[in-house]
Amino acid sequence: RTPFEEVSTLHRAGQIADDILGEALLKAGAALTPRQASVLYAISTGKGPSQTELVNATGIDRSTMTDIARRLQERGLVSRRRTKDDARRYVVALTVEGQKELAKAMRADRACASDIRQRVEGEITARVMAEAAEEGRQGGEAQVIRLQHLGLHIR
Length: 155
Fold this sequence. Notes:
two-stranded antiparallel sheet
């Protein structure tokens, strides 16, 4: 498998996870996107994290993080304030409303965790087996072993 194929497969797995989590968030009554939920979660695990620290924790790029933080602030879910030592840096904290919305998101997260894992593993397995069949490798044993090292359970 080439790095292009690996990245494509991982990207597709991320899309599947986002779709499942998005549906679960709606069912739980959380008016959040999966990225917004991940930002609220990252804020909750730190002590007044900066937007830069949130970028590092979530993998969301800086410009998107700025937009997400602004939208969450406009909705009253987070507060942002500049730090005393660096006027360019924002510290972000959950508001009471943000904590309530995060509680809904956490219920959604727990509700869909096994479904995400099962569907992502199924997607990766299907892609690996299809590629192995194209390459003439019976069963794709080498690819399966590689995926098992990543912690994926291949059927």
